[in-house]
Amino acid sequence: MTIRPNLIRPQSSHQWQDQSFRLLTLVFALAMLGLVGLMVLELLQGSWLSLLRFGWSFLTDADWDPVFENFGALPFLYGTLISSLLALSIALPVSLGIALFLTEIAPQWLYRPISFVVELLAAIPSVVYGLWGLFVLAPWVRTHLQPVLSRFFGYLPFFQGPALGVGMLSAGLILAVMITPIVTAISREVIMAVPTSQREAALALGATRWEMIRLAILPYARSGLLGAVLLGLGRALGETMAVTMVIGNRPEIAISLFAPGYSMASVIANEFSEATYALYLSALMEIGLLLFGVTMLLNFLARLMLWRLTGAVAGTRE
Amino acid sequence: MLHSYPFRKLLNRAVTVLMLLAVVLALIPLFSILWHTFERGWPAISPTFFTHLPKPVGETGGGIANALAGTGLLILLASSIGVPFGLLVGIYLAEFNPGGLGTVVRFLNDVLTGIPSIVTGMFVYSLLVLTMGGFSALAGGVALGLIMIPTVTRSTEEMLKMVPTSLREASLALGATKTQTILRVVLPAAIPGILTGIMLAVARVAGETAPLLFTAFGNRFWSLRLDQPIAALPLQIFTYAISPYRDWQTQAWGAALVLVTLVLVLNIVARLVFHRDGR
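Output (structure tokens, whole complex):
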């Protein structure tokens, strides 16, 4: 768009120009609202058949059987939940450790390289994670991690059964790596937003660095850190390719983390383009709708927590 | 109750070591991924790998020419949707002081970033694939474009807001209209940062697989038609990786090496652009 500045210009013409430009941007901003609305509508419409047919039992039925036209999503809900929680329980302490290291300990010259390298973890495509998970991580889990776990913790039901490599444990591990960058980035911002006076006060009272972190920083940053956790959880729930490649894709509910499982996103990825009849497609759509609803809610809560803290934090890139 | 001083000092040390350990722990997978991708992908790399089409099942050799072209086309399509859309919404949020509506849009934009990409794929499937009667490059491009929008919007808004108000005032004082001020003064000042945001968004969608599974679908043949299924680098990696053929698995690593290089270069260049004259 070229606009020639004229020295003498009728007032009305440039007002018209400004108004129309404003209107153009406004239309696109509204289009964004429209897009989200359309998304909800399409997903609802797509899953309508399944919603009517199965109702709430869709969530509690463990039997997914396309041949007999019976669809229960419980194994997928379970797989998604367990693999994500496992990922979070590994990623949270690690991310918090990195964030605290960066903000409280690292010298200036280390700050940028370390943040950059951790952010690179977020840049690697999901499918490459999957490839690595399938050919590097899963074999390592089978030959090294699972024998050790079953030897020392074999009495727990979580670590029993044959060591297959692919399964819930590998999925959890790979998800942990994948959500570390976002949890780290947001915890870092949140911790940096803690006023220096809080730190100084703790130190002045004779606290060691760890005591300062425990008594002054963590309590102050609590709601923001919760936001980081929720965002990480949302990321883990929706992650598709890497999980599909390592979780084992078996719609069963097993207590053992060694056993193969299935996740909501994976079943969509595997079966959506093969769904041969309307109800099948609709059941998969309903899983998509659930995924959409849950991640939307998690993100909503997370942003709410982060927005209250500092406006800028919410903008941290994944 | 307070522990003895030596104990507190020891605890402090221990925690410091744990934090260092956390950093190391995060770096191990990164280097493992980069190393294995290079080590296993390098044998697949040759001139024919870039210029040939995939061979039929059972024959060894062949390349990823169609997937490279496909990814290029998909990125082009995605950018032509995501960039203008994101730019305009970003300008609206930063320059037109939108109040309540702005807060809603901004909030929704943040929330959109977290929507799983596979759900976007399903949305585009029912929006375009079902209505157009088949998988198509266009549908794939639209899906990726939608994924780009929140990132571009966010970086545009942030970068525009970093431009000093005095610049706007100077422009307006010289008699420029608001539109001229935005397009000729504010936008050019913010361009390095916005470009960084766009490149990062491109880097992200270049590696997206899930939304393409049932939109672009993949294609073993050469096609650049918008209404036909099209190959893409990440799709090819996925198909090859889960195949039982050794040669295909090697090619999956080769394609992964190409993709990772592309994404890393985009990431690094994006940051260089930003740090040269941004901030």
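The first strand of chain A starts at residue 64 and ends at 65.
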